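Annotators were shown the component list below and the corresponding predicted structure, then asked to write short factual statements about the assembly.
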Amino acid sequence: MKNKILVAIVLLILGAKVILAQSPARVSAQLTVIRAGTLLDGTSNAERKNQLIFVRGNRVEKVAEGSAQIPAGATIVDLSAATVLPGLIDSHTHIFLWGEDPAKGGYDANILNAGIALRAARATFACRRALEQGFTTIRDLETEGAGYGDIEIKQAIEEGTIPGPRIFGATRAISTTGGYNLEGYAPELDMPKGAQLVDGPVEARKAARQQLEHGADWIKVYMTHRSWVDKQGNLVSQPTLTLEELKAIVDEARGWGKKVACHAYNGVGMQRALDGGCDSIEHGLEITDAQIAQMAKQGTSYCPTISPYYGDWAPADTPGGKRDRARTAVHEVSFKKALNAHLRIVFGTDIGGMPWTDSMAQEFKRMVGLGMTPMDAIQSATSRAAEMLDMKGEIGVVAPGAFADIVAVSGDPLKDVTTLEHVRFVMHDGTIFKNDLAK
Ligand SMILES: [Zn+2]
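Structure shown to annotators:
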């Protein structure tokens, strides 16, 4: 009995200690209240006027009407003349690509001429660029020969060494022999490759295991590689991984609770991507009606990355020029089909393929230009991307419990979606990174 009382007292003291250790932090975290002229919360289809967003620490505590009481001592951020949204999510980036000019060596120069320190410095620049444009989360789909650098850049951001968005990194990506650059060099040379190349299900699973071991949040696979226009004028793409190889990768990723993003243009490679259980189709230039139905059934996300296919077309009468035009022609049809089928379309730019000095938000006007409403386009870069990333309610939304990733623009993006190309306020993880509206 004595012992039992003693144990009870010890437990009480321990319990009190735990409470003491936790509660001061919770109470003392600074309260910031953002006064939002208009709030687009990322999930609701209705805009709300004159709202107060209470941010404590790095989370949203509550959202209230503008007339609500603001506690003394709170820091007030006046965005009453602005439209406030959740931090944006770009679901397809490459922080380790530099949008190399083909005239200056293009993709190959990035791997052959730039050392890892230069590439890391450029990736650091890319992360700052993303954040200052209001992209508080990115899914970075492959380091293009920079190994596991994305996971280390992510670590540098998380420890506060450099500014940058939340990163979901895919590390090295996986393709097959003959399925990725560098290519076209003397066969005697053992050239470095921008992705990890595998042949056979055993090697495929091993590559997935290596990447997951070293911190991959997603696995990225190439299901198609080269593309061209055939004699009938149809876009054709070369399939890479077999169904068995892809299934080994997907099965391995599932075991780690991770997902698989598949680069796929069309044809056989696209079909294998769907039959193998890919979670997201990247680019998806040409998707048949049956494949759209299969994506709807399987809950596959669609990340179309429209913008990069509109720049730098080769002359119309060349094979490359025909291919460039065929790509956009079928892509537009696929996008509209996906829209009509209410697939989960997620915003992605493939930036890095384009220079990081370009606007990431340019993708919004491409999506809206192909028939998406501005609200739908905004949700593709907020709550819908969050769903794909298994972060529903935590990012891509301004609501109680969510991370305080909040941006603002002057003007109304529902009337003119290009206003999102000029984000004026960025709060990331509860800290204000940029505020051009405080004048
Ligand atoms: Zn890409």
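Statements collected:
1. The CA atoms of residues 296 and 439 lie 47 Å apart.
2. Residues 92, 94, 141, 350, 353 surround zinc ion (CB under 6 Å).
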